[in-house]
Amino acid sequence: MGIVSTATDKYQKCIDQCNRCAQACEECLKLCLNEPDVQARKNCIATLIECARYCRDAACFMSFDAQYAKAFCNLCATVCNKCSADCAMFKDDHCVKCADECKSCANECSAMAQ
């Protein structure tokens, strides 16, 4: 599964889910900025930015089998759960889909942190 080695195969599913979640957050962020109620979404937008960053960093740490990758995944799961809850407050399609991606990532990161 790894690109140049098999050392991180144990993380591959989580790496893929983290990258997918980060992309979903970035797409949702862009769409939220164009919603008429953008002011009501300020906290959600901030969480989307944070979640995307945590997910990208988690994928990076797992990619080089970092010493604290599992601990970071645990933290990433917390942020993803928060982002899922924030997005779920809005009923437009992009927020619903993003909430689902964040929940999936939280579950995968939690499993990885075990």
UniProtKB/TrEMBL annotation:
Pfam families assigned to the protein according to its UniProt record, in alphabetical order: Csp
Domain of life, source organism: Bacteria
Gene3D superfamilies, alphabetized: 1.20.1270.360
Protein name, per record: Four-helix bundle copper-binding protein
Organism of origin: Caproicibacter fermentans
Gene name tied to this protein: yhjQ
